[in-house]
Design brief:
The protein is an alpha/beta fold and about 250 residues long. The protein has one domain: Rossmann fold (3-Layer(aba) Sandwich). The protein contains eleven helices and five strands, in the order βαβαααββααβααααα. The chain has a five-stranded parallel beta sheet with strand order 2-3-1-4-5, sandwiched between helices. The longest helix has 18 residues. The chain is globular.
């Protein structure tokens, strides 16, 4: 287990692809009295480097630093607000481009949130028609998992979104234990609505989470995908399956 930072804070990086329960997980952690959160802090740096056209692109780039080095310092070194001892960071794996350095990761504790890529692609393409393998981040997620595992000498914690929805208390208890922080009942329910900590992209993506007061039931299996999207999901499955074998189970 990685040690706490010099200031005593526990900094947790949760690595997910899009269209998982990553925002609900952020809600769960933010509802703890000891925790502050960051919502996709490398998003603007990713957009600036790639030039990719995402919804509210200009607003995202105006809301965050576009230099990844500045972001890395913020998430790994900046002091937390008074009273906070845990810093939970919601990261999208596809934001970590090859030119972004990763040494800042070494002082954090890491976990990996996975979802069947067939379900990811089905959900993603409801919001954005273009969908390539790189867009859903599963290959990069496996690479980051390997980096953390190599450094620790053991697999870091992995949770599957469907497992969490099936038994939130059990899975979050396992996750907290694996990360070396106490579980809190406050993680199981939260007030509905938007948060100041939400990214400026929330109005486009977060409607379901804003209406929620806790984890919902598992969704139905993904429908059959059109051929061009099915190819993306099939290419992602081996990476997902490898991480799935390491998932936490009560």
């Amino acid at each position: 287990m990685t040690a706490a930072a010099a200031d005593g804070a526990v900094r947790i990086a949760m690595w997910s692809g899009p269209r998982n329960i990553s925002t609900a997980m952020m809600r769960a952690w933010e509802n703890r009295p000891d925790t502050v959160v960051a919502d996709e802090p490398f998003y603007a740096a990713y957009l600036a480097a790639t030039g990719i056209d995402h919804p509210v692109r200009q607003a995202v780039m105006a809301s965050q630093p576009t230099d990844w080095r500045v972001v890395a310092r913020q998430v790994s070194q900046d002091p937390l607000p008074a009273g906070a001892t845990v810093f939970y960071q919601k990261h999208m794996t596809h934001h970590m481009l090859p030119d972004i350095g990763l040494d800042w990761m070494d002082g954090l504790r890491h976990a990996f949130l996975i979802r069947d890529p067939r379900e990811v692609v089905a959900s993603y393409t409801q919001k954005r028609a273009a969908c390539e393998l790189a867009d859903i981040g599963v290959v990069r997620q496996a690479e980051l998992f390997d980096r953390v595992a190599d450094r620790l000498g053991a697999a870091p914690p992995v949770i599957d979104g469907r497992d969490v929805l099936g038994d939130p208390r059990a899975l979050l208890s396992c996750l907290c234990e694996a990360l070396g922080v106490p579980f809190s009942d406050a993680m199981l329910a939260w007030p509905a609505g938007r948060r100041d900590s939400d990214g400026v992209w929330a109005p486009h993506w977060y409607a379901a989470v804003e209406a929620s007061t806790g984890f919902g039931p598992p969704p139905p299996p993904a429908p059959e995908l059109p051929a061009q999207y099915a190819r993306v999901a099939e290419a992602a499955l081996p990476y997902y399956d490898r991480l799935y074998r390491h998932r936490l189970r009560p």
